[in-house]
Amino acid sequence: MSHRSRLGTLVIDCKGDDFAEAMRFWSGALGTEFYPDPDDPRYAVTDRAADEQHLILQKVQHDNRVHLDIETDNKEAERMRIEALGATLVERHPKGFVIMQAPTGQRFCLVDPQRGDFPGDAREHP
Amino acid sequence: MSHRSRLGTLVIDCKGDDFAEAMRFWSGALGTEFYPDPDDPRYAVTDRAADEQHLILQKVQHDNRVHLDIETDNKEAERMRIEALGATLVERHPKGFVIMQAPTGQRFCLVDPQRGDFPGDAREHP
Q1: What is the ipTM of this complex?
Q2: A57 vs A14, A19, A87, B8, B30, CA distance in Å?
Q3: A61, A63, A106: best mutation site toward chain B, by most B Cβ within 10 Å?
Q4: CB A53 to CB B121 under 8 A?
Q5: Measured in Å, how far apart are chain A's first and last C-alpha atoms?
Q6: Cβ contact B122:A52 at 8 Å
């Protein structure tokens, strides 16, 4: 069975207690208003259009970084495909996303489809 | 005089000598072919459409990371605007971009307009 995947959200990981300050800075810097996710206070979301790159702020315990998500309609099939390319599984997060590490060292996540137009321009993997 | 800025390219910084391997992995993972920039072997570029999020691989000496660019028609005015928001100047790179550090710790770059449709949806700063 085939599955599909594509570049998903760009996640700005922010360590520290002052998440309001992180929201203020990144809203101003990127010209996109970040506001608290009503469903989860660890996130700040935006109202960017479906055809724009999605952005999110995440309150984290690990070091500050930027990471990318890959959105897919089959996370386990995508994990196997990405592992075959050389990445390694770091952790299956309780929230449902799969944390991977690229052979070049960056961490990224496999997530369920995020944008309403999925599959849109996602690639199909036989 | 006003200037404009918006989110630019997402840059995947790859340390190490095997840049061909980095190109191979990220091409497969993101379903977007990265190929060597004919003008500069430290970069690998893609042919993503003007209305898609632009991506680039950069061969670096520092640790692997992902960073974002802010494209602007006035880097010095944008630097001052971003500093007023709380970021600090790290370095003016000889290649022309300005490396900044967010109050939340992530590094990002101010660069000249990258996509042909600039200013497009860029925000104007009086």
Answers
A1: 0.93
A2: 7, 9, 24, 17, 21
A3: A106
A4: no
A5: 7
A6: no
The residue among B5, B68, B85, B71 whose CA lies nearest residue A24 is B85
Among all residues of chain A, which has the CA nearest to that of B125?
A: A31
Name the nearest CA neighbour of B94 among B15, B40, B56.
Answer: B40
Q: Which of B124, B118, B34 is nearest to B78 (CA)?
A: B124
Q: Which residues of A touch B58 (CB under 8 A)?
A: none
Secondary structure letter of residue B20 according to DSSP: H
Give the count of beta carbons closer than 10 Å to the beta carbon of residue B49: 10
Query: What does the pLDDT read at residue A116?
Result: 86
Pairing of strands B107-111, B65-72: parallel
Whether A103 contacts chain B with CB within 8 A: yes
The token duo for A11 is: 């996640």
Residues B17-70: tens digit of each pLDDT: 899 999 999 999 999 999 999 999 999 999 988 778 899 999 999 889 999 999
pTM assigned to the model: 0.94
H/E stretch holding A21 reads: helix A19-30
